[in-house]
Amino acid sequence: MAAMWPARIWKSPTLLTRSSVALTFTRASSKEEKTDKGWFRSLFVHRVNQRKDAHSNLLSKKETSNLYKMQFHNVKPECLDAYNSLSEKILQKLHNDPDYPCEIVGSWNTWYGEQDQAVHLWRFSGGYPAMKDAMEKLKENKEYLEFRKERSKMLLSRKNQILLEFSFWNEPLPRPGPNIYELRTYYLKPGTMIEWGNNWARAIRFRQENNEAVGGFFSLIGDLYVVHHIWAYKDLQSRHETRNAAWQKAGWDECVYYTVPLIRYMESRIMIPLKVSTLQ
What is the pLDDT of residue 251? Predict the structure, then answer.
């Protein structure tokens, strides 16, 4: 039996069996196979250079200090009309009051998607100090406090997020209507925001011919690694035609190919603007 095995194995202080030797060879083969596959895969994987800065500094607009807040209010179905009337009155006052460093960019009800929901997008010109200033003033605003008390009776739940604009997206500016708006929300895998931004910075030009691109944002506080894209269309048929037209442009398919693997979950809302919204 001993003659069948190399002398160097029998002299080893550790007793080896046929199965352990076979396992050693199997592991070696597996390691070589993984190395080969890793080398082969590296030819096709879209790599992003490592960064030593926060993605908020790398991806956001440098020329502005705007900070955004997006609110999601889930309203009791029987209270939606009353909620809209009450909200439009107070939000318009805050929007027009020069003492408050905030403005309502968009205000909508969800038409398709999560039902009986209101979505509000605020802009704070001046970043965190402006937001803090607005919040402290609202604590002393009796009309606003009464509004919150009355509003609480109409809500099932609510949440908000603090957002920054992507540097390569349009500034969300007022636009006339009538339009419908699509809020596409992407929940990304942690660590992929830079790669997402790199791809969309090249691809956004494919989605601007019909002036449909409204704004693009990423979260800082609240749900993290979340991206929001807002699009405007005349109607659902226009949305269908505009989205299909993008696939006829060379390069759009590449953006989709590289960004889909970055997504954990995504959802779409079709929204109708309220009267107070600057995006009509």
Answer: 87
Q: Cis omega (within 30 of 0) on the bond before 172?
A: no
> Along the chain (280 residues), what's the average pLDDT of each consecutive run of 10 residues?
42 41 44 49 48 59 79 98 96 93 96 97 94 95 96 97 92 94 98 94 88 95 97 97 91 92 97 96
State residue 210's pLDDT score: 86
CA–CA separation, 121 and 252 (whole Å): 28
Alpha-carbon gap, residue 123 to 39, rounded angstroms: 47
| Per-residue pLDDT at 18 | 42
Place of tokens 């409204």: 214
Residue 258: Cβ within 10 Å count: 19
Please name every residue paired with 125 in a beta bridge, in sequence order, or none if there are none.
66
pLDDT of residue 61: 63
Residue of 242, 192, 243 lying closest to 218 (CA atoms)? 192
> How many other CB atoms are found less than 10 A from the CB of residue 200?
20
Measure the CA–CA gap between 172 and 108, rounded to whole angstroms: 15
With beta carbons less than 8 A apart as the criterion, state whether 232 and 181 touch: yes
Cα 99 to Cα 122: distance, rounded to the nearest angstrom = 15
pTM above 0.90, yes or no: no
Using the structure block, give the residue that is written with the tokens 């398709």.
112
Q: Which residues of 164-198 are buried (b: 16+ CB within 10 A; e: fewer)?
A: bbbebbbebeebeeebbbbbebbebeeebbbbbbb
What would the two tokens of residue 27 be?
């592991």
For residue 63, give the H/E element and its range: none
Length of the chain (residues): 280
β-bridge mates for residue 229, sequence order: 184, 216
Of the candidates 41, 63, 251, 54, the one whose C-alpha atom is nearest the C-alpha of residue 168 is 63
